[in-house]
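Chapter review: from sequence to fold.
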Amino acid sequence: MPPHALRWLVLWSAGFVVRLAYVLLAVGPGAQPASDSILYDSVAWNLAQKAGFALNGAGGPYPTAFVPPLVPLWVSFVYRAVGHHYLAALVAQCAIGALIPLALVALGRTLYSETVGWNAGVIASVYPLLVFFNAYLLTETTFALLVVLALSACAVWVKRPRAWRALLSGALWGAATLARPTAGLLPLVLLPWMWRPLSLSVERRRAAGQVAGYLAAAFLCVLPWTVRNAIRLHAFVPVTTGGGRSLLDSNNPRVFAEPALHGNAISTAHEAPYEQALAGLPEAEQDRRCARMAWAFLREHWSDWPRLAGYKLARFWRITAERGTTGTWQAEGSPLIGVMKRLDPLALSFGALLPLMVWGAVCALRGPRRWFQSLPLWPIAYFSALAVVYWGSLRMRLPAEPMLVLLAALGFDDLRRRFQRRHLTVVPR
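The token string follows.
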């Protein structure tokens, strides 16, 4: 095996072992889905049984678009191969999560240097927040990987413009949107970043053609799912019917009134008066009505928007893990429960690396290539803005975490080189 291939394999293996160890310690070999994981597990098992993309109701499986399709789809292949074993899905998710450090190496090499890329990959392989979500069947791990891959593809395309690279970048953003629809607007947000170097590298007509191909590829990747929803749900649903519900969960009178819930969200589906208002409505209509109620609340409290945004951002960017309103993530009897009470892994990792992240952001915005090297800051700002609209949570922040790790690696590399220049002297022969 070539040395460079062995290096990639070692990094992936290390990331996989760390994630699998956490899964076994946190939820155990007899892991069972809970909370939102139940939805993804149920849809995946129905797909594996050829019952379609469906949730289970009183009358049996019914077509749904409440959850995005990509995670239940790949989990269904696992279930078809090994049966309905939830732990098998988590092991597969660990394999996917262990690819994030590799994708981050590729992005770091393109934007900065070989050293920065590999340092970021090593940090990401053991970074607690990127490990944590592998123990729960949710969209976050798959989504974070696709975001890094899409950003890496965009960086390579902008650096060496080719039509096929534009199409690949767009297709990856389409896949990310099918993993979690919050990615939907990010390809558009990145247009100013990519247009400037593209228009300098190739003539504007060719650059515009590649950008059009990039957007078309993203759109065409999502289109079949939108058509499926129109056929099965008899409504226009681009990706999911969960957007309006999420907006209402985080923008309602109870969250606004209770200090313990500031910046958080509740499950309005099981609370009055929302449960009664939505009873009996089709899934798509429920989502639309939730959105209308949420916007009515926001219009009524328009003068409180800055305060609401502050609550959400404070919770989104918290340095310590929150307890009390987030529930218990470890299974009963897990040896990690006692450890988590004494040590805060988020404070130890994010808190320790925060100065390097800030300095890395400063470094990215300096020098002749600062526009190109500013790429990690764009998704960080984007997901922060989404938190202002919805709510502040570690789940919302997770896709930005690889970019923060990359900035920390950049900041560390810059400080290392400064130290070497100042304190190490070269003795002439």
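Two observations follow directly from the output. Residues 14-416 form one domain. The longest strand covers residues 54-57.
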